[in-house]
Amino acid sequence: MSSSRAKTVLLPDIGEIETPSNAEAWLGLVGTIATRVLTVLPTEQDHWWFLVEQFDRATSYCDVARTIMQTSPITLSEIKYDGRRSEDSYVGIPNPGVVFLQRAGNALATGFNTDLSQIVLANVYVSYVTACQVALDDIRLKYAVHFHNNCISTRSFGYADQWREVIEALEETKSSGQDGLH
After folding, report:
1. Residue 85: burial class (beta carbons within 10 Å; 0-12, 13-18, 19+)
2. Counting Cβ atoms within 10 Å, is residue 49 exposed (0-12), middle (13-18) or buried (19+)?
3. Which one, 6, 20, 141, 180, has least CB within 10 Å?
4. Residues 117-145: pLDDT tens digits?
């Protein structure tokens, strides 16, 4: 009689996990990773950069993962995320949440496959955004105003106009109590 042992994957900062055997176990894995993401984002700045960078990275995920990303209660206009990286900005270092998810994603891709890893990471992102939506909307507004003002001071009026549109949409969303769809 042979005993079959479930395949395991070692996730950074989480430990060894067995391959989930049902939907509830997969959701549990997503919840475990999403909870860990929250612990590595200590500042507003970290949350903002995680939101935009991880969204940008997910634009290259597999079709199923990109479809999952569309279920997020927050979507971002291209001006907010396109190619933005904290290490290339005034921050000067990689975002700790993005680094954590890259490490977790690499471990999942090695243990399972790339598409499944991306599907898990997309669900982690949507779970994070859903749990933090109110705070993230406040942070998004604060940063949109900051970027708008920077554009004005550098006489980049075209970009300032785009940021003004983002600000107006966020303010409208906030005053109407709608989801954060800007």
Report:
1. middle
2. buried
3. 6
4. 999 999 999 999 999 999 998 998 898 88
pLDDT at position 3 over 60: no
Longest dimension (CA), the chain: 75
- Tell me the pTM: 0.83
3-state SS assignment for residue 16: strand
Calpha distance 138→21 (Å, rounded): 38
Residue 182 in contact with residue 137, Cβ under 8 Å? Answer: no
pLDDT at 2 over 50: no
- How many residues are given for the chain? 182
Asked whether the CA dihedral 89, 93, 97, 103 is positive or negative, the reply is positive
Residue type, 67: T
Q: Long-range contacts for 128-136 (Cβ within 8 Å, ≥24 apart)?
A: 128/34, 128/37, 128/38, 128/50, 129/51, 129/72, 129/73, 129/74, 130/72, 130/73, 131/34, 131/38, 132/38, 132/47, 133/73, 133/74, 133/179, 133/180, 135/47, 136/47, 136/51, 136/74, 136/180
